[in-house]
Amino acid sequence: MADAAYRIFELAEHALSRPFPLRVRAWDGSEAGPPGAPVLVFRRRRALRRLLWRPGELGLARGWVAGDLTVDGDLYEVLDRMSGLLWGRDEPDPAAGGVVRTARRLADLVRDPGSYRLVREALALAGPGLPPPPPPEEVRRRSGIAHTKRRDKAAIAHHYDVGNDFYALLLGPSMVYSCAVWPGEDTTLEAAQYAKLDLVCRKLSLREGQRLLDVGCGWGSMVLHAAEHYGVHATGITLSAEQAAFARKRVAEAGLSGRVDIRVQDYRDVDDGPYDAISSIGMAEHVGSERYLEYARTLYGLLRPGGRLLNHQIARRPMRDEEAYRVDDFIDRYVFPDGELAPVGATVARLEDAGFEVRDMEALREHYGRTLRAWVSNLEAHWAEAARAATVGRARVWQLYMAASALSFERNRIGVNQVLAVRTDADGTSAMPPTRRGWLF
């Protein structure tokens, strides 16, 4: 049993049909793999059992969250080296991601007499027993119709109601949980989030006395910024009770209770329009493709003629077979239950279908990679406090999710865009200046 790492490494290379790019260290202290490479550490036999029962992304994620798997080296480098093996989508069959290919290859190994020895040895190494239960941070498979009000509220609670203290350590004083805008190399995270909030306000051309609706207001940073610096009357809505409580406290402490209202409310239940402007920052990813036109029409109906919408949303790359798209198991089970990403072109099309005139689109992909790395740094710098504020497993979920997401933005697998749209007047005009400089500065 002193060569467990060699056996795991050998099985991985056979299953993947290519060189495995990491070293492996097993619970018995053995190591195998390319010298100098970062190390994937199997701290317990249970990690191997998870992978044998659920090959690929979900087995790895469960091992990571439970602490059965860890890395010795740079986490970003480990994820980058493995991304093509697990999350690649360039295969001829669009429905078969890297996870599916890995699982199929392992099934083939069981049927291959020449490889049967490897599988038998791996089973012996993993030890007897049923598959280990998933970590408690995992959301089980849901049934029924997605994106009902009740199911959306439960999904939001899973992601956001994990403790305001946890998010304060992660996000820093700004309490903004969306892509920042980094004006320069020496910009701090706090300054970058201020720049993003101010950019949204300027794109919406906010003026004193106007009414702003912030859909998915989080911990209240956007409505506070708009009320304090632009004099608007702002309404923020969220489905998270913990966020709302935190935001109301911030509003009261800022002396803005007369100008800012925070509600626990679904966007489909807002009925006190018209508003002069609407911001939706990092919320539309929760809406779902089947509900997106309803979302766009609802916001259109809440705006006065000439009113503007700023929709800030993560986008995925288009695929050859759009019907084959599915959210990665790790994201769906641990991070954003029922979350969906669409290409930016589909988002623009739905906004136009709802009646909006789309006037501007700004891509901020590189900015999100830097934002995520800053959040990871915050989390790692306050690891013990974050683990106490939530759980160790939750901290490990966010560390993995944010590091992997940073690489996805940096490698252009996903992007993030601000789409500025306007509800035109009855004659089809919008009274917007004809150039970006006219309404942005």
TrEMBL record:
Where does the record place the Polyketide synthase-like methyltransferase domain?
166-405
Q: Which UniProt keywords apply?
A: Lipid metabolism, Methyltransferase, S-adenosyl-L-methionine, Transferase
Q: Name one Pfam family in it.
A: CMAS
The superkingdom listed in its UniProt entry is Bacteria
State the Gene Ontology BP annotations: lipid biosynthetic process; methylation
Name the SUPFAM superfamilies for this protein: S-adenosyl-L-methionine-dependent methyltransferases
Signal peptide span: none
- What are this entry's molecular-function GO terms? methyltransferase activity
Name the family: Belongs to the CFA/CMAS family.
Check the record and name the PANTHER family matching this protein. CYCLOPROPANE-FATTY-ACYL-PHOSPHOLIPID SYNTHASE
* Name of the molecule in the record: Cyclopropane-fatty-acyl-phospholipid synthase
Q: Which organism is it from?
A: Actinacidiphila paucisporea
Instruction: Give the classification, highest ranks.
Output: Bacteria, Bacillati, Actinomycetota, Actinomycetes, Kitasatosporales
